[in-house]
Amino acid sequence: MLLEVEMKTFLVLVLSLTAVFLWQRNGNQETAAQPKPTTEKVTTAAVTPGPVSEHNWAKHSLDRTHEVMDQVQQARRSNEQP
Predict the structure, then answer these.
(1) Tell me: the pLDDT tens digits for 19-51?
(2) DSSP state letter for 56
């Protein structure tokens, strides 16, 4: 009797997981079939100095962070002076 209950529980679990798998797979196929809307990127020369190579993306990120921090400090200094 205990084996029968365990078998039913196992069967329900397997069927549930299969249903979830098929549901997610079907959802992925539907979203892949729909065309994605294109978004236009607005870029300016001052914001993006040039393409970043894959070798120095981390350095570029840190350099950009420091540039922004310097701009914020300059803006705060200019706002403090009357």
Answers:
(1) 999 999 887 776 666 666 566 555 454 555 566
(2) S
Residue 40, both tokens: 């236009």
Question: What pLDDT, on the 0 to 100 scale, is given for residue 34?
Answer: 63
Domain-by-domain residue ranges, the chain?
1-32, 50-82
CB distance 70 to 78 below 8 Å: no
- Please state the pTM of the whole predicted model: 0.35
DSSP state of 50: S
Compute the distance between CA of residue 16 and CA of residue 11 in angstroms, rounded to an integer. 8
Assigned token pair, 37: 């809307």
Render the burial of 46-78: b for 16+ CB within 10 Å, e for the rest.
eeeeeeeeeeeeeebeeeeeeeeeeeeeeeeee
